[in-house]
Design brief:
By secondary structure, the chain is mostly beta strands. The protein has strands at residues 2-5, 11-14, 17-18, 24-32, 37-44, 47-48, 54-57, 62-71, 80-88, 91-100. It is built from no helices and 10 strands. The strands form 3 sheets. Strands 3, 5, 6, 7, 9 and 10 form a 6-stranded mixed β-sheet that branches. Strand 1 and strand 2 form a beta hairpin. The chain is globular and about 40 Å long.
Length: 102
């Protein structure tokens, strides 16, 4: 988790704590084949937040490549615990918890 991402998918200000008006990023690297589907599902208040959740289907091979997904709900975050769940081709690829302070 981070407060941003560089053009080459490096995290900017790695953290697991965000303010109500800060955009949250999940940033990483992996080997992704043609047709792979990477999904980021943002969990806010215990439920998926569809406005930020998205799936990217790759049209070519991307060995050792970076990714970044971000979220800032309309009106800002409510204080509490949140997470983003990543899946690759429908399989769990990691869950990244973070908190939002008031």
């Amino acid at each position: 988790m981070a407060k941003g991402a560089t053009d080459d998918y490096q995290p900017v200000e790695a953290t697991t704590s965000f303010g109500p008006s800060e955009e949250a990023y999940v940033v990483g690297k992996g080997d992704f084949g043609i047709g792979s589907a990477i999904t980021a599902t943002w969990i806010v208040g215990g439920a998926p937040y569809a406005d930020c959740s998205r799936t990217v289907v790759l049209t070519e091979n991307y060995p050792d490549s970076g990714y970044a997904f971000s979220c800032l709900p309309d009106g800002g975050w409510s204080p509490g615990d949140c997470e983003v769940q990543l899946t690759l081709d429908g399989r769990d690829a990691g869950t990244y918890p973070f908190s939002v302070g008031g």
